[in-house]
Amino acid sequence: MRLIPARPRRLTSPLVLAALLASLFAGGCGGGGTTGELSPAAFVKGVHHPYFPIERGWTWHYVGEYDGVPIAEEVRTLEQPRRIRGVECTAIEELSFRDGVLVGLTTEWFAQDAAGNVWRFGEESFEREGDAFTLTADSWIAGVAGGTAWMAFGATPRVGERYVGFKPDGQEVLEVRALDGVADVPAGVFAPCVEIASNPDEIEDTDIILYAEGVGRVAETNVTGWTHLVRTAQD
Q1: Is the pLDDT reported for residue 120 higher than 90?
Q2: Nearest to residue 102, comparing CAs of 139, 131, 64, 142?
Q3: β-strand 48-49 against 52-53: which pairing, if any?
Q4: Rounded to whole angstroms, what are the CA distances from 9 to 86, 91, 173?
Q5: Which residues make beta-bridge pairs with 66?
Q6: pLDDT, tens digit, for every residue of 185-201?
Q7: How far apart are CA 142 and CA 37, in angstroms?
Q8: Other C-beta atoms within 10 Å of 134: how many?
Q9: Helix (H, G, I), strand (E, B), or coil: what is residue 1?
Q10: What is the C-alpha separation between 159 and 178, in angstroms, rounded?
Q11: pLDDT tens-digit readout, 5-46
């Protein structure tokens, strides 16, 4: 196992940040979502966020449990970017296994703006139904059928901060719960971690996710089970 070191964070002055936010939209934004047209010029190549690094060539391996059944995930950053709404987006591909059988394949697209915020531009998921894989109803792409890109991870997360974004059936909500979380997983002990709650207003459907600096997602828990990082590597 070779953990990938964190990259230094570049700070943006208030005046530069204000100018960036003004140029980011032709319209406006609120709560992490967008109501206007994104400006491709406001984005940089690649995603280099200290807590959300998705450099090309990286792979993460996870194990866990879902409703008492062993699960595993293999997540990797794809080499080929995809241009969505004029923005070059980096893709993450996730293979999901349940009891050793491949049951899901999900690709998500992200981009980072010049201030360091990470934006989500789409998700395409396939789930096994018998011997075939079917596109799920919650798949979406910004600019298609009402889909809009939204900020999913702030450059400098703050406790209580919420990121609210597009879902085909409504909104997705992420809330920063803590900045001092600790994850003790097979890959090691990580602290401090950024703790984020997904769907925080739906107790039976809330995921608690821990992100470690220089590594990314290291642990996830909910009422049905858990997922822990085993190892991560760089090609």
Answers
A1: yes
A2: 131
A3: antiparallel
A4: 26, 22, 25
A5: 69, 225
A6: 999 999 999 999 999 99
A7: 11
A8: 11
A9: coil
A10: 6
A11: 233 333 333 333 334 434 444 333 334 444 346 799 999 999
- Residues of the chain above pLDDT 90, percent: 78
Predicted structure pTM score: 0.84
Helices (H), the chain: 14-24
Amino acid, res. 215: V
The predicted structure's pLDDT at residue 234:
84
The token duo for 183 is 């994850």
Contacts 24+ apart (CB under 8 A), 151-155: 151/29, 151/32, 151/33, 151/117, 151/118, 151/119, 151/120, 152/32, 152/110, 152/118, 152/119, 152/120, 153/49, 153/51, 153/52, 153/117, 153/118, 154/117, 155/12, 155/49, 155/115, 155/116, 155/117
How far apart are alpha carbons 91 and 182 in whole angstroms? Answer: 27
Which one, of 173, 227, 219, lies nearest residue 200 by Cα?
173
